[in-house]
Amino acid sequence: MTESDVTGRAAPETPHESTAAWRELLETLGGLDRSFLEGDRAVTDDRHIADGYRMMATTLGVAFDTYLFADPSRPMFVEVNTPFRRDRRWGGDNTDAYYLMCPVDPERRYRITGNKGDSVYFSVTAYNEPSPGAWSDRIVAIMRDDDLDIDAAGNFAFELGPMPDAAVLMTRDYQADPLTGRPVSWHIEALDEPEPVRHSDAETAAALRAGAAWLRTMFAIVPLAVGARVDDAHLLGHEITHAANQFADPYQVPDANFGWSARDACYAYGSFELEDDEALVITHRPPACRFWNLVVWNQFMATHGVTDARCSVNGHSAVPNSDGSVTVVISSQIAPHPNSLTTLGYPRGNLAFRWFLADEVPARPDARVMKLSEAPTQSD
Predict the structure, then answer these.
(1) Which residues form the domain of 232?
(2) In the sheet where 185-190 sits, what is the strand order?
(3) Is 90 exceeded by the pLDDT of residue 259?
(4) Pairing mode, if any, of strands 278-284 and 291-297?
(5) Which of 61, 121, 162, 252 has the highest CB neighbour number within 10 Å of its CB?
(6) pLDDT per residue as tens digits for the range 291-312
């Protein structure tokens, strides 16, 4: 052990860029927890503190998959959200969908093949990257299931590229019942010759720095506030100002975006703060659309896995009221209502509606807090 190791002084400068970048990544990781331990966004219960560290591990894994180990000339889709993996619950996930990601070269041509399985909606969206590791701020292209020739067996094939400014592909696959539905199968291949295999010092350093930048952006967003926002810098998405136990107005995603929103979706975000004996009763009238769902998140935009808790409801599983509206009861544990969702005992958290291919932007969902004992137990 060197003197500098013992005294805690900075280690000597290294001639290797990857070594310097690795130490920068460790420094980034060492400070990420300040976002949820200190300041106006500090979480207030021990479960959210624990969730913060789990989110650091989750997003580090995603950063490695999409920056360090990715090779756009040898493309491969990797899971970034699924209904089942505990290490892929981040970024606005839900239990009804599978999301895969694949970094791409904007100058290359790609062929994507697969089978639709039991999907009720699927798509591939190409996003830009303003700088290495920065989150997308523009949708470059989108290919939806209704754009494709799908044969009787559910198979499809199409080509993409070159796509100027495209940096990453994101697939979406929404299931009516994730416990029984067969997910879309995806395969991607580059139609041009691959680059020579290189794991150079400079390339590794660039990948590590991009991953660190990606992590810093994630933790500049989470944890989400509950109730009135302190920062109104963003006018769309999860940063919209709203009060606790209410929703912001729904909106349609434009081509200019932040993160990986879907162009053909409408979203509405809200938050909850409930006592154990309270329920949040939400009623909304879904427009004609291919798919909609409502998801309960913690303050890190993550929900629980689908296997042992009901934290989301969708247009296929919800029991509607007689007038076509849908009422959902959210409480600490599952309530008698057929559209009951659980917060898993979290005292506060966030809520997300999404509607895909809606005929119109939905009206703002109504939300009312009441005693759980007084909440409805069946659809009207």
Answers:
(1) 225-374
(2) 155-160, 110-115, 185-190
(3) no
(4) unpaired
(5) 121
(6) 999 999 999 999 998 888 899 9
